[in-house]
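Posting this for the archive.
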Amino acid sequence: MIEKEKWWDPNMSSQEMDEILSLALFKDIDAAKFPVQSSLSTIIYKHTRLLNYLEGEVIIRAGDYGNSAFLIVAGNVGVILPTTVPQGIFGTAVKQPTNWFKEIAKLWRNPSYPEVRPLKQTISDTVVIHTDDDRTRVFIQNFSSVVEQIQEVIINLSAGDMVGEIAALTRTPRTAHVIASSDCLLLEIRWQAIHALRKYNDEFRKRIDALYRKNSLDALRTLPIFSRLEKHEQDNLISHTLFESYGEFDWHENYKDEVDQDRSSLLKHETLIVDEGDYADGLLLINSGVARVSHHYNHGYRIIKYLNKGDGFGLRTIIHNWKNHDNSPLPVSLHAVGYTNVMRVPSHIIEALVLPRMTAEEIDILLVERKNTYLAKMDYTRELRLADGMLDFMSDFRYINGSASMLIDLDRCIRCDECVNACAVGHNNNPRFNRHGRRYDHFMVANACMHCHDPVCMIGCPTGAIYREPDGQVAINDNTCIGCSTCANSCPYENIKMVQVRNAEGEFRQDAMSLRQVVKASKCDLCVGQLDGPACQRACPHDALKRIDLFELSTLIKEVE
């Protein structure tokens, strides 16, 4: 029997398999084009499942990170843009205003016991949560009245339509809410199946690529170097742009085992996108994920910088070759850190459409930057004033994923625990981090939520309790957290803890139905909603603790000098 992931239905019958294969999406696929080890039937069995949704049940929430798409088999669903519904109606927390009086009041209102949570927080005012034997269901209360209020902005989809492909393929936030307009049957398709179908079936690939062009590549029009083009020139550029994926989509699942066995193994597993010395055949634009720019050094690579969404690679070399009628190779390499999606605009398109529209001054600036890249290669440590070992440490453990990591200078830290105490005061006597972690020299990256650029903890939360604030903080809504541990298990850095919650008298709460102790996910929320930023950083008497974006090497250099 084919091994199936534990959380997917292990009892798919042959009748259900036949039903799925008879759907329009699959029935015309040539199964002979799939390799034996990844046959069409194997992909369907391992990476799809049929799910029944009831009217008013939430299928997708805007802002969530997902790794699967949904094909409507029967019934109807509604797609709702997040700007058209009241804030918080789909389960995310509504940000409450604060002031200095409320902050000071916490000093005497904090409970006497840790992890005290009001009983009403087991359910929200707008969301009904129901746990079946197989999965957790989330319903919008008074769904019919909600539909009446926003009926004119609901996009109705029916059998044969698919939602969520692009977010599942690129691991980017969902852009709309999807809710069951009636009782319906959906086929959930994991990203592994989407990748395989795209690879081995031309029609499916064309369908996905067309959607990707519509939803993602149109963003190219707004980039400064493309905004000067005429509409037909932009269309020509978009039609030639390729969508490519590199690395391991589920890198976080193996991270803990690999990093414990050999800290250098993660670097070895990074996928090469282009190598130093390759021909610059296109401008690469990072669409999602993180990429590492480096150059050959001894028997490995020396890191220069990192790129994330919106950054480009290769333009300077293309400009150099175009202006000087040269054929110089790329001076540096590009690797996918974990998982990276890129858009490749061919060099001949850049040369024909983009470069003639750039001014001489703009071209000269980019050529100077290319020259500086060579200087950085020749004397890298002196140029960046940062030890190679520090960069390797950040890369080996993928701390560069953190947008607000807690970096502690142990030479300054006197172990007074004022940071921990301040965190507890700001969170109802419940500290949200541990002052320990991995070290390099006299610096430590503490076990506190890093608010990652690629927040894999947000994948799979059944209620949307873990979400990203508009300012970038990753937070957890106590109202809709059901204690399933999905986020804690997914976090590669073990920065989310499951805690037993108490009542005001200090007694552990029990679920009324199962009589089990109630647990909630707990993590640093970067003091979202509190005045003057993270309390831990403000409380440090010796300026030893900083919350910094480790992706930005210039910031890291400034802190460690």
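Residues 392-560 form one domain. The chain has 21 helices and 24 strands.
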